[in-house]
TrEMBL record:
Gene3D superfamilies given in the database record: P-loop containing nucleotide triphosphate hydrolases
The ABC transporter domain, residue ranges: 6-233
PROSITE patterns according to UniProt: ABC_TRANSPORTER_1, ABC_TRANSPORTER_2
Record Pfam families: ABC_tran (PF00005)
Native species: Paenibacillus macerans (Bacillus macerans)
Coiled-coil intervals, chain numbering: none
GO MF terms, alphabetically ordered: ATP binding; ATP hydrolysis activity
Name of the protein this chain belongs to: ABC transporter family protein
Record family assignment: Belongs to the ABC transporter superfamily.
UniProt KW keywords: ATP-binding, Nucleotide-binding, Transport
Length: 302
């Protein structure tokens, strides 16, 4: 058995002539947070629906906890909690009553309800009707619904979509706690790159249904290109000298932005600029969003 709790091979799903997910090979390590990034329509939700057996793949395999999803569907799904899009609840009932309905349906003890409410920090509000909850509280209730069966895996589709900064912070702390303290594997889809960066151990990037990157989050950050932002006297002449020397260069008014590469090191750049007086030299590193745009050829927007 591999060290991956979720593993897919050649996973493909079509809708008519359109290929929504194309030969996807996911590798999700156990006990980690895996961030699944992609623009709207890239195939994230379709992938999640296949992992939850809500739709069938046209091709490929899904192994979860070392077993085939197609052959051991019920046993596998008992160990998965999920929140796909907006949580479902009865607004006129309290959080406790909503969870009690689920517990009865799944034949779970009431102790599971109390634990789920404690985990998402809703115990003080458990008897209040859900219609009076903030959006962040409703989202935490949705996660409590996913946690009530004490799953090994949590699959969340855009869990912070629409939340205010305080709500985002709550969900972020909750996910880190579930992973670090309880060892739950979290498969998290989002288009909010800064939040993926804040919580994820691993990241996969999907574009037009294809997985174009998959590794530790640190490996994605290593793809960052270092650039020098320079203001020199005789800007036009400095630009011509750098461009003539083979530098990757962009100009923004009086500022020159030069990319450091294997072919053009910082030492090479400063050698070309020796005839000029430098008024500003600043090292600029890309954000995770800029790295995403580099990987996708700047053809996707999040």
């Amino acid at each position: 058995m591999s060290g991956y709790i979720i593993e897919t091979g050649g996973l493909t799903r079509r809708f008519g002539e359109r290929v929504s997910v194309d030969q996807l090979n996911l590798r999700v390590p156990e006990g980690k947070i895996y961030g699944f990034l992609g623009a709207n329509g890239a195939g994230k939700t379709t992938t999640i629906r296949m992992l939850l057996s809500l739709i069938r793949p046209d091709e490929g395999t899904i192994q979860i906890m070392g077993r085939s999803l197609s052959h051991h569907r019920e046993a596998i799904l008992r160990n998965i909690g999920s929140l796909v899009e907006a949580p479902s609840y009865y607004g006129h009932l309290s959080a406790y009553q909503n969870l009690k309905l689920i517990a009865k349906l799944l034949d779970l003890p009431e102790s599971n309800i109390r634990e789920a409410l404690d985990t998402v920090r809703l115990t003080p509000y458990a008897k209040q009707t859900v219609k009076g909850y903030s959006l962040g509280m409703k989202q935490r209730l949705g996660i409590a619904q996913a946690l009530i069966r004490k799953p090994r895996i949590l699959i969340l589709d855009e869990p912070i979509n629409g939340l205010d900064p305080a709500g985002i912070q709550e969900i972020r702390h909750l996910l880190l706690s579930l992973s670090r303290e309880q060892g739950i594997t979290i498969f998290l889809s989002s288009h909010i790159l800064s939040e993926i960066q804040a919580v994820s151990d691993y990241v996969g990037i999907i574009q037009n249904g294809k997985l174009i990157f998959q590794d530790r989050i640190q490996e994605l950050e290593k793809r960052n290109k270092v650039r020098l932002a320079i203001i020199a006297d005789r800007t036009d002449e400095a630009y011509r000298v750098l461009a003539g020397g083979g530098a990757e260069i962009e100009r923004y008014g009086s500022q020159l932005l030069i990319t450091v590469t294997e072919r053009m090191s910082q030492a090479d750049i400063f050698k070309l600029l020796q005839p000029f007086t430098l008024h500003q030299v600043k090292e600029v590193t890309a954000s995770l969003e800029e790295i995403f745009l580099q990987l996708t050829g700047r053809g996707e927007s999040l």
